[in-house]
Design brief:
113 residues, alpha+beta, four-stranded mixed beta sheet, two-stranded antiparallel sheet
Length: 113
């Protein structure tokens, strides 16, 4: 069983990264067939950077690598969840998780109306 990269025109499969110990969602990124293969081979997360249009080894410049504990695939084989042991913050801002800002639902509803 492996991701169905052909389901997406750009071949990029959404990938949720979760801290294996705390269960906290750390980030969402995209894997293509090559970054998936590199992740399996290296035991660390690799992604496809849409902004740089290149492969990206998480932590290559920051040192905040992510060691893979397990990879889960969804029922449609088009989304991945990677459980990791992080070696530092996942977010480029220095936050543990990229999801550190909560949207106030009341304010958001008022803004939409």
């Amino acid at each position: 069983m492996k991701p169905d990269f052909a389901k997406y025109p750009d071949g990029l499969v959404p990938t949720i990264v979760v801290d294996d110990q705390t269960q906290q969602v750390l980030m969402m990124a995209y894997m293509n067939a090559e970054s998936y293969r590199l992740s399996l081979e290296s035991g660390q997360t690799w992604f496809w950077s849409r902004s740089r249009q290149s492969l990206w080894h998480k932590g290559e410049t920051s040192g905040n690598t992510q060691t893979i504990v397990a990879i889960w695939i969804d029922c449609d084989e088009d989304t991945l969840m990677v459980r990791v042991k992080p070696a530092g913050p996942a977010c480029h801002t220095g936050h543990t998780s990229c999801f550190y800002r909560e949207i106030n639902l009341e304010t958001a509803q008022q803004e939409e109306n």
